[in-house]
């Protein structure tokens, strides 16, 4: 809701807001959509990756604005990963001769094969590119800070860039361990460590909100405005009802 308020509606000036909106939506679905985490995890990883690429390019050319291009990239990621997961609808789940339902496919075992694929697609590929592009972002932030000390010029997209670096760092340290355990230790008995790592993985998807509050000034201001507005509305409505009641009694 906050990313759709007036402050963030000028997406032509900051097209990266589209990536932040998409990540927020996927975080909600992965937390509250039953079994959707298996299908949306790879989308989330690649959208975060393209978010890194877009931010890196904006730091190099802060005047550039490619809103339609960013929307096209997000749409292509959603379509491609949907097609990537589409085989579940075709091959997964079948009836055995005894009437029971097998969640695997008739031609091959989906698990643990899918865990290995998920590790590569969801973690390893984004990890490599995120490290590359975030290293570039950190380099440009340090370089522009040195220039700012001399020229006293403003750094565009600096806040969003810092937020991105922290977000991707949390993505890497909070999701990779649980995915590795699921891929390579699927046949072993579930331990307390595996449960803790799995909990940390899902905890990552609720870290965006407090992270934006701490590092993103405009987001924090809009959130405070929204909370204050709701509190004021609750105070005004009962007062209006009381005034209307008094007027009705006086007329009678």
From TrEMBL:
Q: Does the record bear Mitochondrion in its keywords?
A: no
The name on file for this protein is: G-protein coupled receptors family 1 profile domain-containing protein
Keywords, in A-Z order: Membrane, Transmembrane, Transmembrane helix
Cited InterPro entries: GPCR-Ligand_Int
Q: Per its UniProt record, what PANTHER family does this chain match?
A: FMRFAMIDE RECEPTOR, FMRFAMIDE RECEPTOR-RELATED
- Asked whether the keyword Membrane is assigned, the reply is yes
Q: Where are the transmembrane segments?
A: 71-97, 117-142, 162-187, 199-216
């Amino acid at each position: 809701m906050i990313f759709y308020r007036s402050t963030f509606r000028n997406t032509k000036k900051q097209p990266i807001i589209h990536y932040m909106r998409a990540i927020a939506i996927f975080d909600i679905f992965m937390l509250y959509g039953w079994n959707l985490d298996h299908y949306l995890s790879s989308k989330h990883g690649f959208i975060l990756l393209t978010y890194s690429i877009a931010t890196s390019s904006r730091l190099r050319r802060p005047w550039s604005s490619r809103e339609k291009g960013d929307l096209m990239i997000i749409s292509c990621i959603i379509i491609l990963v949907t097609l990537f997961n589409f085989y579940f609808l075709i091959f997964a789940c079948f009836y055995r001769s005894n009437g029971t339902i097998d969640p695997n496919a008739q031609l091959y075992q989906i698990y643990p094969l899918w865990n290995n694929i998920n590790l590569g697609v969801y973690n390893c590929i984004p990890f490599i590119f995120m490290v590359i592009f975030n290293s570039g972002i950190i380099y440009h932030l340090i370089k522009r800070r040195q220039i700012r000390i001399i020229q006293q010029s403003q750094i565009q997209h600096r806040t969003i860039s810092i937020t991105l670096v922290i977000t991707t760092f949390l993505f890497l340290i909070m999701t990779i361990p649980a995915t590795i355990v699921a891929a390579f230790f699927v046949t072993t008995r579930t331990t307390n460590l595996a449960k803790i790592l799995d909990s940390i993985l899902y905890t990552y998807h609720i870290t965006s909100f407090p992270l934006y509050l701490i590092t993103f000034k405009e987001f924090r201001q809009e959130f405070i405005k929204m909370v204050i507005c709701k509190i004021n509305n609750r105070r005004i409505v009962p007062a209006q009802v009381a005034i209307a009641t008094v007027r009705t009694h006086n007329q009678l």
